[in-house]
Amino acid sequence: MQVLNPIGLDVKKSEALSEKLNLLLANYSIFYQNARGYHWNIKGKMFFELHVKFEELYNDLLLKIDEVAERILTLGHTPDHRYSHYHSLSRIKESNEISDGAKAVQDILKSFKEIIVLQRELLTLSDEAEDEGTNALMSDYIRQQEKLVWMYSAFLTTE
Hints:
This protein is mostly helical. The chain is built from five helices and no strands.
């Protein structure tokens, strides 16, 4: 007999989704703190442009952190909030102090790759669980982030 949670999803499938969403939350949290570090420490001729872009990035990541945590709660589970746990789980690693704009953008691109791959894994799980809410959230994130990958990659292109 299938047991459903309050939003009508299979309890076991929603638990697996919540575990994967907590992994995403850990990655977003490390990415967020790295982006703040890039914003704080950027130097050089691209300072004014990148300082603003990095602030936009970390503000967007902060919103996504909140949305992912709220999605975990909606599924009936608890979002993790411990940085020690994030540090051990995250595929994205803490960056060293980075003041070079090109190096920061390269790290951002690596982080987006990890995030997008993880979100695609969540698309598969959410599809199997018939969880349209998580599926739509991940689809929206991927679409937006693929565009950012293109833009950050264009920044690194030299003529």
